Each structure stands twice: as C-alpha cells, then as structure tokens.
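[SOLVED] Predicted holo structure with calcium ion

Edit: marking solved, answer below. Original request kept for reference. I posted the sequence and ligand SMILES and asked for the 3D complex as structure tokens.
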Amino acid sequence: MVDLDRSGFIDAKELQRALNSGYQKFSIRTIRLLMFQFRNPNDPFRTGPKEFADLWSCLGQWRAIFERFDRDRSGKIDAAELRDALYSLGYAVPPSVLQLLISKYDDQSGRRVDLSFDSFVECGMIVKGLTEKFKEKDTRYTGSATLSYETFMMMVIPFLAAE
Ligand SMILES: [Ca+2]
C-alpha cells in the first residue's frame, strides 16, 4: 500500500506519506535518517519490504517510549523527559550534549523546547546511532576512543542528513 508507484521499493516521499497522519507529521530529515538506519547492506539505496517492516516495528518501539516518558501527557517530550527516556535505553548522555541536541529544535519563540514525536525519534536515532558507532571504537567502554579524521567524518556525516 505504501509503495504507491509499485516499484517494489519505497522512497522518502512514499514513506513520509505513509507515516504522516492527522496528528503526526514526519519531517523529510527524520524520514531520511530512518531510511539510512534501516538500509539493506546489499542494496543501501533501496528500502524494500523487509527494511520497511523493521523500520515500522522500530517506530512502534519509539512510540511506546515516547508515551511512557511523556509524563505530563503534554504530547511532547521536554529536555528532562528526553534525558530519562535515553537513560532508560542505556544512554547516559552528558547534560551539555543533551542541551546542544535539544537546542537544535528551539524555534526561537522563547518557549521551552518540546519535541514532537518525529523530532524525538530523530534525537533518539542520533544518540543511539552515534553512541553505537563510538562504542565500536571504545571496546573497553572507557568513555574514550582514538579515531582517525576519516573515521570520525564517516561516523558523523550520515547523521547530518540534508533537509
Ligand atoms: Ca511532556
């Protein structure tokens, strides 16, 4: 149903259309990040039925986490709720990092930053993805690692998906 042009694969626009519903909107940036995370290693530029199923199930898990940590039932996740949600997943993100991350979603209105579901998923995937990448280099879990310039860039750039 999602594969509107019947190509056997879904593209970012098709996925965005499938995920957007009345109260939930996904930015194309989050969509691209999701597609990157669930790419097929043998065919990384195409999202087929299996990748889509994995992605869908992962979104269900993020939804459950979102509901669980939206303690004040505001329909949004604030900085403290995000910290607790990430902590529950095993990511003890330093306060400075959390602040930098959440500041990316500041709309400059002067109000407290609150994350909608798609921004929450994006934050979660960035923290999870980069932490896992870092852990590959920090095999003894010391919190430090030595990386080459190329390795560092290769780690980070995929998470800076274009708008
Ligand atoms: Ca909330």
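OP edit: The mean pLDDT is 90. Thanks to everyone who chimed in.
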